[in-house]
Design goal:
The chain has 307 residues and is an alpha/beta fold. Strand 1, helix 1 and strand 2 form a beta-alpha-beta unit. It has an eight-stranded mixed beta sheet with strand order 7-5-6-4-1-2-3-8, with helices on both faces. It folds into two domains: 231 residues, Spore Coat Polysaccharide Biosynthesis Protein SpsA, Chain A; 70 residues. It contains ten helices and eight strands.
Length: 307
């Protein structure tokens, strides 16, 4: 069996096209399949339209979450409920073309890969293109995960890789990084990412920044290295300043004004605030993990067993 996971949040404008194209794409290579739509707390008519589509396509399963838990949590719900020997993850905005799934399936079944990810060679449209590219380039450098450049959630995994992925239970999740962390033999299918044709983009600049922070703090010690570097520079600078003051007093140089003292205080204070901010981010993540709360909660499942 093949499983396709698609989280959706307020996608009423394109949900019918998304379902139609996804069904057609999957049926071209997998006669036995299921498509799991994860309704992540939509407040528009997305759920109602999905229910109508399901009346004509019984292989669609709808998992309704109790509220909006976020993109990564919705994907996690799908991964834990998927039954397929091969499982694909795809965004619900049609920027990742479902027609590419057939190529992924051939690569994973015929060439022996455990994981096949969609690698973006470019993006049509200008929405968040620069910031997204900068994030991927920066994350590649600081996390040391070279295989993650220009890849996102769009991917296909075999059952062994899925089982490994669902064993990771952290609350603050970045699935592309987790997918890279588990290892296995990984391959890629290159494609040009489409621009959104309908509806409003869900990944705003603010959300991208938050996702980037989760990714960097979860998979890199770069922030700690920055603190160590700044602290070392501060110690060196003020050791030199101390030597200068001592020499000036010995030889009778007059030190006029308090500007150097004030600047020194501000400089050291700023470094300390940076340190506190970085440590606070790590402490917050430790606190979130220690709460051990569910990553998501399911309100209702629409499938053959529930009818």
């Amino acid at each position: 069996m093949f499983s396709l996971i698609i989280p959706v949040y307020n996608e009423e404008d394109l949900i019918v096209e998304l379902a139609t194209r996804s069904i057609k794409a999957v049926e071209s290579f997998a006669p036995n399949y299921e498509i799991l739509f994860i309704n992540d707390g939509s407040t528009d008519s997305t759920l109602q339209k999905l229910i109508e589509v399901r009346k004509h396509h019984s292989r669609i399963k709808i998992i309704e979450l109790s509220k909006n838990f976020g993109h990564q949590a919705a994907f996690t719900a799908g991964l834990e409920m998927a039954r397929g020997n091969y499982v694909a993850m795809m965004d619900g905005d049609l920027q990742d073309p479902p027609e590419l799934l057939a190529g992924m399936y051939r690569k994973i079944t015929l060439e022996g890969f455990d994981i096949v990810s969609g690698k973006r060679t470019g993006r049509r449209g200008k929405r968040l293109r620069i910031t997204t590219n900068l994030f991927h380039a920066f994350f590649k450098k600081v996390a040391g995960m070279d295989d993650m450049e220009n890849t996102g959630n769009f991917s296909m995994l075999n059952r062994a890789a899925v089982n490994a992925l669902v064993q990771m239970k952290e609350s603050i999740r970045y699935l592309p990084g987790m997918r890279s962390f588990i290892g296995f033999r990984q391959g890629y299918v290159e494609y040009m990412r489409d621009d959104r044709k309908k509806g409003e983009p869900k990944m705003t600049l603010g959300k991208l920044i938050l996702l980037g922070a989760d990714a960097i703090f979860s998979f890199s010690k770069f922030p700690i290295k920055v603190c160590l570097f700044l602290g070392t520079i501060g110690v060196i600078v003020f050791m030199c300043a101390g030597i200068y003051v001592l020499v000036a007093k010995i030889f009778g140089f007059a030190i006029i004004g308090w500007s150097s003292t004030v600047l020194s205080i501000y400089f050291l204070g700023s470094i300390q605030l940076v340190f506190l901010g970085v440590m606070g981010e790590y402490v917050y993540r430790i606190y979130k993990e220690s709460q051990n709360r569910p990553i998501y909660l399911i309100k209702k499942v629409y499938d053959a067993e529930s009818e």
